[in-house]
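We store chain and fold; example below:
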Amino acid sequence: MADKSQKLQTDLIFKAHDAITQINELAAALDKVSNIKFNNVTTLMGSMRNAITKIAESSNDSTKVQKTNAEVVKTLIQQQTKLIREMQKEYAKVGKGVVDLLQMNGHLIAEQTDTQIHIKHVLVRDIEKYKNVGLDENLHLTDNFKDIIEDDEVEIVVEVMGSADFAKACIEECFRHGKSVVSANKDVIADCGIGLLKLAQENGADFQFEASVAGGIPIIRPMYSSLNANQIEEIIGIMNGTTNYILTNMTDRGLTYEEALKEAQEKGYAEADPTSDVGGFDAARKIAILAKLGFHAYVNVKDVSIEGIEGVTKEDIAHATAMGYAIKLLAVAEKNTDGISLAVHPAFVPKDHPLANVGAAYNAVYVRGNCVGDVMLYGQGAGSLPTASAVVSDIMNVIQHINTEMTGKRPYLWHETAVKDAAENKAPYYIRLIAANAPGVLANMSGVFAKHGISIRSLIQKDETKEAAEIVILVDSTPCKTVRLALNEIEQLTCIHRICNAIRVIEV
């Protein structure tokens, strides 16, 4: 009887482990290509692991107990099967949004391009997983990229895979075979965009990537086409919907950062590991792409100074609101006679500026040209159909080039440009600290600021107790590096308990 019970126990553990592995693998693949997050993955895998622990601990229990455990695992596996089906469908939506849009607006697209678009192949990692996701039965599902690259009828390849290395290799092969590529892959374009554009030109192919920045917002093509009569001086954007959702809810509902992040995760705006979003890395890739095009410059994501929103608190939000500002995570690219600076950081934005009023998970990009002045583009930065809108627009553009025999003939201009240390950039700063409530504290701080040539615009002492007080300071425009040096010195003063935050103030 014991042997039977133990065998059942072992079988159950293996089943549960297999279920965890399958869910985890698909979730990882999904995260690479979709903005939709299945946060019940974490919950289900936690339940699976708890079940494994319980089964393992019951090794000496009766067969009856093990059968009860078997029912638990059976229920969990049923949940797993349902979740995987949902995840597979969502995974397919990334590319399926393009298919759906072509079906929805095919007649309009055909009228404008004088061309019928036919999708011939769909590349997937595992054919079996995608047989029931609702794709047209005439589409050829394949897990072999050679089926696409060696098909002479294929003229345009749409890349929405998400994985950087494999995607880059596929794009390069497309160009070598004379096939044009439409991509939404911000990682590849931020790091390798210029090299890929050159390779496309060498092989008489087009490379279009409107969907790589800000989803459905048309910003890539305007940067190198509609605005190309201008010297672009500055690009400022809210380019990550997750962080904007978090900061909006901290502002409008008084949530803490932790509360707003948790809600964003529950609603699918943020991943279980939100580092790429809240740490500013996603926005950094996007501003690197726009800077390449807007400034005609050899830059990449490594040139971007990055600061996330993890340190923004409920108190900072309240002070910003009281002072007439909204806190936003901004991606900023500036060009002047000294060179280019690229940065991602939280910032105080005046409430009367359009960027301050970009709420929820929306994106916006603000561009300043020497002739056009200020231009702002606003819309959904992610989502199946908004992103598909950008992808299909690129497809139509390539078709027009094919029909007029202009593929690969668009000249791109690049300059060797000095990249400045963003720490040299000047800005006013909001500073919040906790200090001893004692005579001489303000004089000591003011002395340090004066030593570094920093002028105090305003100083407010708040939330006093007998022992300590919160001090909020606004200083005039100062290089970031200088502010940091002064704060490091102030932090060493015995009367200072801690420096809570220092956030740039944008004056646009």
Notes: Residues 29-41, 87-92 have pLDDT under 50 and may be disordered. Residues 89 and 133 are 5 Å apart (CA to CA).
